[in-house]
Write a structure and sequence with these properties.
2 helices
Length: 152
């Protein structure tokens, strides 16, 4: 099965995108750490998204999370990259979070992840292509407005 992650919104502390599955089309939204220009910037441990590219994916046990997860293989500059549940940038240190986008966060992550695992658990040949569609920047004031709205 082929998956495609299309990065769409780039902010200082997060990258929002969409995940597409072969034969299905749009499947869910994604959240990753900040995307960098690898030719100009250096990786910041735990705060940088993986490079664009094509990666093999293997479903396997995660001792840390206590369940089977999709693991991306041979990701340059990274190790132990997974697709897993989470809602906020603090929930990822490079991994891809899945859920439904609500402003600049994800909601319903556990439900979406469960559905994704239902599609992947019996697949033997899985790959993901990670690419960017556009460089839609989120302004600091727009981001802060969204954050403040949560408390009003």
């Amino acid at each position: 099965m082929k998956m495609t992650l299309v990065r769409k919104v780039f902010a200082k502390d997060r990258t929002l995108g969409e995940l597409y599955l072969e034969g299905i089309g749009y499947f869910c939204d994604t959240l990753e750490p900040h995307c960098i220009d690898w030719s100009k910037e250096k990786k910041v441990a735990g705060k940088t998204a993986i490079p664009e590219g094509r990666y093999k994916v293997r479903v396997g046990w995660s001792p840390r999370r206590g369940r089977n997860l999709p693991w991306l293989k041979k990701v340059p500059h990274f190790k132990d990259i997974q697709i897993h549940v989470g809602n906020f940038p603090k929930d990822t240190r490079g991994c891809i979070l899945v859920g439904t986008r609500n402003k600049n966060i994800l909601v319903g992550s556990r439900v979406v992840f469960s559905k994704l695992m239902g599609k992947l658990q019996f697949e033997n040949d899985i790959e993901i292509v990670v690419k960017s569609e556009t460089e839609e920047k989120t302004s600091d004031s727009e981001y802060l407005g969204d954050e403040l709205e949560k408390f009003l």
